[in-house]
């Protein structure tokens, strides 16, 4: 494994910790600022929307510099955002800190995906992307539970200060280990924008929004769901997040392995499974053991979609992958924002803490339908022989 992949995984670990640790600390933060839990959910929505905006914005700004330099600048921005969150005197400032940190997220994973794929042979690209995302999944096994534990024991502000320190480690890792490759020949914003003319790129992004939205509909409100419905103590939320992280870790590795062999069948299976498991979660949430098993499955099935969806975007954005890759990371977080908002709506409407699971099941089902549509369009285009000039050079997508 190239050491540069380790550096990218370290950065991903810090970003993954700050993105997900908020879920375990929502009740404490809400109580500190005197806001409701659905209102505190805006810290998830705001972060996610910041990723959506920051992904294309920061990537566009970075087209004039080397990928290593922009990755280092993004980690610096991430550190600053977490320091603002750690010291925020009001809920509004806390939200602002979350947004500042989030601006780095999409571009880091988007540019990092391109760098990771370029470091290995063509048949190993999805595996390399999965290796980088391993940092994100390990964050959910180690960083998020520890951050939740620290936040509940000595205060959530300490958690965000520690996350800022993690960002510094990620910055140093990128500086030391990522090769300083020259800017790609002909890389400019206008060329990067051409990728969005391809309907398959847009469909893959829509699948990302809906599929990952399904995961976050359930997970955003896991703390109140598990304590009020399943009967777990507040302290048990930490271990449930460990289980979610283990599911994410295994799903990501599975997705990386099979996306290089059978991309679309992998998507069909994971999205169908995710929709079914989220629907069942409305029932299993009432039993401690079944709820814990379901949390693992939601993490596993949700993150098994990450490498194939990211690879599909890279395949179809051939020649101009950087912006498309970053925007697809934004799409994951648009799904997070949509799901956190819809989940808050159904809870506020009095439908209970399990109601967001139905929202998630519907979103995942919609993503599955888009996957079938995408494959049908691809078959139709092949049948007509309508292949664009640049498609001949694409890495083939396996079915």
From TrEMBL:
InterPro entries recorded: MFS, MFS_dom, MFS_Efflux_Transporters, MFS_trans_sf
PROSITE patterns named in the record: MFS
GO molecular function: transmembrane transporter activity
GO CC entries: plasma membrane
Topological type in the membrane: Multi-pass membrane protein
Residues that span the membrane, as ranges: 38-58, 70-93, 99-121, 128-150, 156-179, 200-224, 236-254, 266-283, 289-309, 330-352, 358-377
A Pfam family recorded for this sequence: MFS_1
Alphabetized UniProt keyword annotations: Cell membrane, Membrane, Transmembrane, Transmembrane helix
Top-rank taxon: Bacteria
Subcellular localization: Cell membrane
Major localisation: membrane
Domain Major facilitator superfamily (MFS) profile: 4-379
Keyword Secreted appears in the UniProt entry: no
Annotated protein name in UniProt: Inner membrane transport protein YdhP
Species for this entry: Actinacidiphila cocklensis
Gene: ydhP
